[in-house]
Write the C-alpha cells for this entry.
Amino acid sequence: MVERLTRRVKASEGRHSGEIRIVVESSLPSSYLWRKASVSQLARQRALTLFGKLRVWDTEQNNGVLIYLLLAEQLIEIVADRGLNQHVPAHHWQGVVQQMRLAFQQGFYEEGLTQALQEVSALLVRSFPLGEGETHRNELPDRPRID
C-alpha cells in the first residue's frame, strides 16, 4: 500500500506545482498526552506541528498539503498552506475529511486515502497547474510517513 500511495503522490505532483505529504501515526507522542485539550484538538495541533516540522509550509508557492491520520483515535486532519487555502474554502476540506472517514469506517483505508489524494490533486491542478514544458520541482518526499 505504501508503494502504491507513493506512486500516486508522484503522479499527482507531475500535474501541478504543489507538494503533498501523507503522515500516518498510530498514536500521539506522549508529550501531547499531558496537554489540556480534547483529542481532536490535540490531533489538529499535531498535524500543524508536522506541517512545520516536515517543511510542508516551505514550498516555493506556498501550496503544500498535509494529510494526517491518527489511527488510535481515528482522526483525520488536512492542513493546506496559505497559497492553496486562498482558493479553497474551509468547508471543502471538511468534505474531503468526511469522505475519508466514511471510507475508513468501511475498512477501505487505501481507497479513502486515494480518494482524498485525488481531491487534493484536482484542487492543486486547478489552482497551480504546470505550464507548458514545465516539470514539477519535487521539494518534499513523496513516500508517506508512517510512525
Notes: The chain has a mean pLDDT of 92. The radius of gyration is 15 Å. Strands lie at 19-25, 64-70, 75-80, 145-146.
